[in-house]
């Protein structure tokens, strides 16, 4: 494709995306295709001769759009948000257009240096401790990973490196994200060496006293307590573990403290929400939060900071001959390939840089506050309605609640709630997801898309009530 | 950013990229910035108020472009190519614009189904075996990973799962990519359990007899031989391990055979180069090649196929409540989160689909053939010149050779070759990299950018000769 052809088709694609963003609301939120339907609508074999890009764009409308669930829809309330935004898309486009490799400082210095800058900017914005800053002469630093899952693997490797040889043990709670168990499997620590610490049944936050006991038991039994993962904003209900108390225990036992703030961490752009990081400054060895969830930056952009990058680099660094270069040998530069699992890396800093510059601290705070406000509004609706039981913790953008089904067993109630959820999602008017707490299925409304306005959450709430009423009215 | 603002700035960014691609040749290939220079040219702290996107674009020219090494420059011959192309950039742009998450089939069916389709298309194009196809009722399948490094981790995990408990051992050669050692570290197999099998000193290909011995020794010593990595096109010199003979040994011992064809695998779009995959159809348990190197598809796009996906899914699958859904429970769909380290995933299939459709099989073959031809041309130049010694193996796009420094020791010759390389790269006229074989530093010219024409390789060769002559003429 010549540059001129790229210019022509590029404008068409930009127009398509602008139109898509302007009209996303017209699509049913969740795709209605059946398994196999998308694939069956496309040729089974690749073309022998090249086709026009118009053909690709035609299939986009015909096959792809009906086959996707619209995560950018203002009534998408599932899982957690996956924010996209104009400046992020453009930053990503610049990255694709430049097509550089950032595996080493030397392979494109700006790719590394802009990244060290923007992760420091983000640390500023979130008021994270100075020891996380990426000064070449400091011990700490930040890096963009593809996901908090990969960041968890890196944290486990660093913690294991620091702990030395032995039978390593990791500590999580029942509410910790499944990626920690996955990291234990990937790293060979093994699920048998993941201790699940009890949570407080009211708050679903990790019980520090139980953590302390577990670590003491393991020390006595000859294990090496290696890493504790504390979560700030769990996936299920955005519970917040008591990081300060957990950190004190970690310090006493010399255990690495990883703080998983994948979803909620970015909320610290707002000073009034910075309580969420209480204890992080003093105790966290590593900390991860995902601008690709609630901070307007397209997936993938998960930022991991470390107070001391040395054990991570020791765990991951290998320098084959063909990558040797004077900048690396000088020790004056950061080589990010030693901070991640892959070797190659895209210029992901461009999108986070574009987002922070376009919105400014002010705009980012306004975005988070709007999500918190809308969530507060929905929570108020639920609290005022005797047909529903509100989960009392909703400080961020997630509201959990369950419909009450008088006269039904818990099992039947759960089944009814799942049926309600399916009907809502089948309607195409909104998309929600669910979780299970203490045996009860809860509906989850995660609010935080930049397109979501008051009318969307109001309308979602009315729909939920209407579907519930209609189910209640049906003969059993 | 409103859709209309996105339309306006999007067109500007498209124009910038079109202009960049049209004029990339005017930049020095390698960035000349010093460590810290890029960062120092930008504000130390994030802006409080949002800025115009014009400011971002202005800094792109002022700071970013001088700070990058131009991997898309027609005279970039370093490492391996990192091909970008118009349709790939546009496919990536569509992915960013749609902003969907493909972690599960259910979270956006088209993201999964288009991926199963295009990896099957690519298997067709490369004439890979039918057992790698992603039929829902078959055992095998393909998946897009970010890199061959991550694919290696996944392969090790699958191999370990199949092998069961025990002291696992991996087998590589001295020419195997460092990502295999990295995978051994990440997975906890440990570098002590990576056996480095000798290579034939003439071809640098793994010696199957030595592999057989190593495995037999390990079995006798109570280890569990778990995986052999055979490479098709090593990073150093594009050596090709004898996959068929290695595969027979693997089969006899029940060891997983992973084939790393990260660079060279895509060359099999050309029937005349399919000898490179001899033995793959019969013996490979997993196979990886990177369209993001030499097949016109922007990083990241590394395709991993498995003959049996079950051990991988067993090693990586965890299903927390919030991800449960009817499609997953039905078993009728592929959930790619179980095929990779991260949970979340971008819609990367769009770019590979765009590339295959735009170029067609015909266009992809023409692209690879052009690289092979140009490499053959350079190799001819080197062979005809008594001042240089050609490394005799150059079937793909890589040509390795060394300048001869009469009267110098090997150490001094290597230093002189490195000085020559630095002078060439400092000139900005071309960028090359190096490797070391049997104690000798070799220069590497990796040809394969779609922008590279005959004049660029001719001009690079003249420059190399001129710099060499000028060094020879200097007083010692």
UniProtKB/TrEMBL annotation, chains A, B:
Entry keywords, A to Z:
Aminotransferase, Decarboxylase, Lyase, Pyridoxal phosphate, Transferase
What InterPro entries has UniProt attached to this entry? Aromatic_deC, PyrdxlP-dep_de-COase, PyrdxlP-dep_Trfase, PyrdxlP-dep_Trfase_major, PyrdxlP-dep_Trfase_small
Which parts of the sequence carry N6-(pyridoxal phosphate)lysine?
A: 293
- The protein's superkingdom reads Bacteria
Q: Which Pfam families match?
A: Pyridoxal_deC (PF00282)
Q: Which GO terms describe its molecular function?
A: aromatic-L-amino-acid decarboxylase activity; pyridoxal phosphate binding; transaminase activity
Question: Which cofactors, by name?
Answer: pyridoxal 5'-phosphate
Q: Name one GO cellular component term.
A: cytoplasm
Q: Which GO terms describe its biological process?
A: amino acid metabolic process; carboxylic acid metabolic process
- Identify its protein family: Belongs to the group II decarboxylase family.
Q: What is this protein called?
A: Aspartate aminotransferase family protein
| Source species | Saccharomonospora piscinae
